[in-house]
Design brief:
alpha/beta; Beta-Lactamase; 3 domains; eight-stranded mixed β-sheet; six-stranded antiparallel β-sheet; 18 helices; 21% strand; globular
């Protein structure tokens, strides 16, 4: 099997010798391993940029080839899920008549060479979701339930009928207690949770990394032993065993079911509510009123930025109700954390880029007035106290050599600003 390490590819092709590679690895180590080895090689004159780019393309090709190597003689659930987990996948889709595919960060990658037959998919469904699922699928279009497999882990499985037969989408639950820094959760958000009141919003695109971020904040909220915490979600996030009393309530699929679940939970009078999704008007209104009642509410909403999140919330309401909602939101909102998951510089893992809006008096005033474009100006201001913009985080990741320019450019809001500040950087992907 081909080695996918960049150093091994360089030695294999005779592009550098061992002494030169070891010298560059030593330089990389001295500088705190903040720069990719390819960047160090270019700086030392052992490679030029075009050659490095071609080598990285070769490395990516080999990486995808490794990801695809699941034995065709073993397409059972254990082999497929173990391969997906081993490649840091967040989810896997196994569909009749198609190869199995996994999502690593934002990228979908083929996991098997051959397509899976109907019996292959049925076996996976039976092994992970139980025999009764087949009967339920005969009456319904889909079935959603947690899954658990010894030696692999667990997550949420959705088996469904589609045009070509049957398919199952399986997500992986995060490690029980992710590290906040690794999960892209700044200390300001943890501090807002520790206050114990108000609304903390977690925002992202297509719910990517949602379970990981919510697990971090759930753990922080559970640190106060006297609290009663309710997690309203279907994701099998591990509940903390120490500190607060933490329970889980099932979240419905349809908006009406979600709202009814949340109303039932609020009647229990918890100190903390952790809600998987407030993406419809009825659900968000219940969460807002719960926060107004003196509770801590940690909620997730799909949106690409802080400004877009607040705009989406206000769009839930009619014009005559906006003044009340803006006033209520300004009073209870504490922070908005935006998380974007990007491929790392080698495209073998992921990096979290964040935007953070800390709600101070200036932000409250903007929300009350409804001049939401001013939120963007506050975040972009030099030395501001209202958090940081996504573009500043992307620039920091580029400077540290953790991501590629082509991946960052697509996410940047002020592309000209980013290009101006990266002009002198030696960044992979330039």
């Amino acid at each position: 099997m081909d080695d996918i390490r960049l150093g091994a590819i360089l030695l294999e092709g005779g592009i550098v010798d061992e002494a030169g590679l070891e010298r560059c690895l030593a330089i990389q180590s001295i500088t705190g391993n903040t720069r990719p080895i390819g960047q160090v090689l270019v700086e030392q004159g052992l490679l030029d940029e075009p050659t490095l780019k071609r080598l990285l393309e070769l490395q990516r090709g080999r990486t995808e080839a490794v990801l695809a190597r699941v034995p065709t003689t073993d397409l059972g659930s254990a082999a497929l899920l173990a391969a997906a987990r081993g490649n840091n996948a967040s989810e896997i889709v196994i569909s009749e008549g198609r190869p199995a595919r996994i999502r690593v960060g934002p990228t979908w990658i083929q996991l098997t060479e051959m397509v899976l037959s109907g019996p292959d998919v049925w076996d996976v469904v039976r092994e992970t979701m139980g025999m009764k699922v087949l009967e339920e699928l005969a009456d319904r279009q889909f079935v959603v339930q947690p899954w658990q497999l010894d030696g692999v882990g667990g997550g949420l499985a959705t088996a469904f009928r589609q045009f070509e037969g049957v398919a199952v989408r399986m997500t992986f639950a995060p490690v029980p207690y992710p590290d906040p820094e690794t999960a892209g959760v700044p200390k300001e958000v943890i501090e807002a949770v520790q206050v114990g009141k108000g609304l903390v919003l977690v925002v992202g695109e297509r719910a990517m990394g949602r379970a990981e971020a919510m697990a971090v904040l759930l753990n922080a909220a559970a640190a106060e032993a006297s609290h009663y915490v309710v997690l309203v979600d279907d994701e099998p996030i591990a509940l903390p065993r120490e500190g607060a009393l933490v329970v889980r309530r099932r979240f419905g699929i349809a908006p009406g079911e979600r709202a009814e679940s949340l109303r039932t939970v609020v009647r229990e009078d918890p100190d903390v509510l952790v809600i998987a999704d407030v993406g419809d008007a009825e659900t968000f209104e219940i969460a807002l009123r719960a926060a107004e009642g003196g509770r801590l509410v940690i909620a997730y909403l799909d949106a690409p930025s802080s400004t877009a999140a607040v705009t989406r919330i206000l769009n839930f309401y009619s014009m005559h109700d906006l003044a009340r909602v803006r006033s209520s939101l300004a009073a209870v909102l504490r922070t908005v954390l935006v998380r974007h998951v990007l491929p790392d510089a080698e495209h073998t893992g992921t990096v979290v880029a964040t935007e953070l809006l800390v709600v101070d008096d200036a932000v409250r005033d903007v929300i009350r007035r409804g001049e939401l474009s001013d939120l963007t100006l506050l975040l972009r201001a030099e030395g501001n106290r209202a958090g940081h913009s996504l573009d500043r985080c992307l620039l920091d990741l580029l400077t540290r050599g953790r991501v590629r320019m082509d991946d960052v450019f697509a996410r940047a809001e002020e592309k000209a600003w980013l290009l101006e500040r990266t002009r002198s950087l030696q960044v992979v992907g330039n």
